[in-house]
Design brief:
The protein has 268 residues and is an all-alpha fold. It has one domain. It is built from ten helices and two strands; from the N terminus they run αααααββααααα. Strand 1 and strand 2 form a beta hairpin. Helix 3 crosses helix 5 and helix 4 runs antiparallel to helix 10.
């Protein structure tokens, strides 16, 4: 049997129903607002983390900008002078053992010092877990370009070819841990002593030391790896110091005309 529905509700029933509906509506609105609040708080937390990572990225790049910039500049200068300048021609086989040793060893030192700072930066970037921040990507792109040039087999000559694993190993060998726990690259005098006295250290550089002669015995195409290395280093320097504040000069990329008049035989 069906129960009859009252045709009219008394005032008390209407108030009760309205109160119930308002309670339900208030609960729904409260739930929606709480959900929105949680989403907003989550978005704000993600933004804070993103800003924190960006700050860490900037702090790290600022911390290592100067040593990496100077190391890149020293290496590009050595490549430029070795291919387009007369320094190696004058001193690499000048008859003075000290001058010859310095010409050869300092050339390799600039390469090893650069690889050391790259390894230090990559290690710290990894530990800080900075993600895919724009500046990190740009920095890594420049470092990867240079690493690829050094390790590539596309060049006709193998001199100055250093595969990635060897690049990292050289960078690690060059690290010097200070008393305060900070990591820097070996100075040139320290490098020179270790080359002289530490046979295990020296063996990592034996082939590279011989490769210095290739600057003089090869032409533009034969030194193509070093040419493109110098170009890529200039690009890195422009990224690190776009306003030309720290390195205002010596940013010219090698051109073939730079060696047009250079003698390609080893001086006696």
């Amino acid at each position: 049997m069906l129960t009859a529905v009252p045709e009219k509700l008394d005032a008390g029933s209407i108030v009760a129903i309205a109160s119930a509906l308002l309670s339900i509506l208030a609960a729904v609105i409260s739930g929606v607002m709480a959900n929105r609040s949680r989403k907003l708080e989550h978005a704000l937390e993600l933004q804070r983390r993103k800003e924190s990572k960006a700050e860490q990225t900037e702090e790290l790049i600022s911390k290592y900008r100067e040593p990496l910039l100077l190391a890149a500049h020293s290496l590009q200068q050595r490549m430029h002078n070795g291919i387009g300048g007369g320094y190696l021609e004058e001193f690499l086989h000048c008859g003075d053992p000290e001058e010859e040793r310095y010409a050869r060893r300092f050339t390799i030192y600039t390469l090893a010092e650069y690889l050391c700072w790259v390894e230090i930066i990559r290690r710290d970037l990894q530990f800080l877990d900075l993600g895919d921040e724009g500046k990190t990507r740009s920095l890594n792109a420049h470092l990867t370009d240079i690493s690829s040039i050094l390790g590539s087999q596309r060049y006709g000559r193998s001199h100055f070819r250093i595969f990635r694993g060897r690049q990292r190993a050289i960078g690690q060998l060059m690290m010097d841990i200070g008393h305060n726990g900070s990591t820097e690259a070996l100075t040139y005098p320290e490098f020179d002593v270790r080359i002289e006295e530490d046979s295990e250290f020296r063996r990592w550089f034996t082939v590279l030391l011989k490769d210095v002669d290739a600057f003089l015995t090869h032409d533009w195409n034969g030194n193509r790896r070093q040419v493109e290395l110098q170009w890529a280093l200039i690009d890195l320097i422009d990224f690190l110091d776009p306003g030309k504040v720290r390195i205002p000069h010596d940013r010219a990329k090698l051109e073939e005309s730079d060696i047009a008049n250079r003698v390609h035989e080893v001086p006696r």
